[in-house]
Amino acid sequence: MGRKFLVGGNWKCNGTIEEVKKLVTVLNEAEVPSEDDVGWENFQNLRGEGKVGKEVVVSPPFVFLSLVKSLLRSDFQVAAQNCWARKGGAFTGEVSAEMLVNLGIPWVILGHSERRSLLAESNEFVGDKVAYALTQGLKVIACVGETLEQRESGSTMAVVAAQTKSIAEKVSSWENIILAYEPVWAIGTGKVATPAQAQEVHCELRKWLHNNAGAEVAASIRIIYGGSVNGANCKELATQPDVDGFLVGGASLKPEFIDIIKSATTKKSA
Question: Which residues are annotated as catalytic?
């Protein structure tokens, strides 16, 4: 069974009620590839060859989660952009994993670089968040990625390996985790990793997981790319063998998000 292509849309801190309704309407009216259109991948994992499809997950701000969930088409899912690292309580301003589950939200994004840099979330804290979210039944998109300074110093893999290790040390299963490689220098800058750069890091991440989490985890886990993905570059990125989808920022607020979803069909011919 191949790895299902996932396209996530991170709306970040954007939107009004009316803007969110319009965006959901665009998504609901869009013609996107069916499971049959996303074909068969050209590789096998340890459980044998199988049919793959696509998954679409959108992540609005907390205040719009219930609204989006109530209006969004049934074949798309909803994610929160963050959650607290333990059970709720006296943590002003935080949202607990239990609250998300109570709302029927299946996914959460954790460890985004904006939270790591602006709110000083450490690798260890992100690992705690991922582990706790999993215990509550959430599925996690866990973000890793290096700064421009780290890339130029040749420490990209050391950085993303350390970030991944902090998760690996806290979890017993990777079944409900997706890794999102987001080079910080490419987020919101208009710069984008070349397909070769993205593939290199995804491949090395998969090797790290093979050595530290096992061959089955390495073969089955989805590693998606984020960092100025748009309608113009998504198809070439999608052809890379270890790129299993995208986490899209600014472009997820625009009609071109539909084109990015459609890039899932590229796997059929890759």
Answer: 112, 182
Residue 227 burial by Cβ neighbours in a 10 Å radius (0-12, 13-18, 19+): buried
pLDDT of 55 > 60? The answer is: yes
Q: Is a pLDDT exceeding 80 seen at residue 153?
A: yes
Cα–Cα distance, 233 to 224 (Å, whole number)? 14
Rounded alpha-carbon distances, angstroms, from residue 152 to 10, 113, 155, 194: 27, 18, 8, 15
- CB-based contact 115:83 (threshold 8 Å): no
Alpha carbons 39 and 265: distance in angstroms, whole number: 7
| pTM exceeds cut of 0.85 | yes
Contacts of 44 (CB under 8 A, 6+ apart): 2
Burial of 174 by CB count in 10 Å (0-12 exposed, 13-18 middle, 19+ buried)?
buried
Label residue 212 exposed, middle or buried (CB < 10 Å: 0-12, 13-18, 19+).
Answer: middle
Cα(first)–Cα(last) distance of the chain, in Å? 17
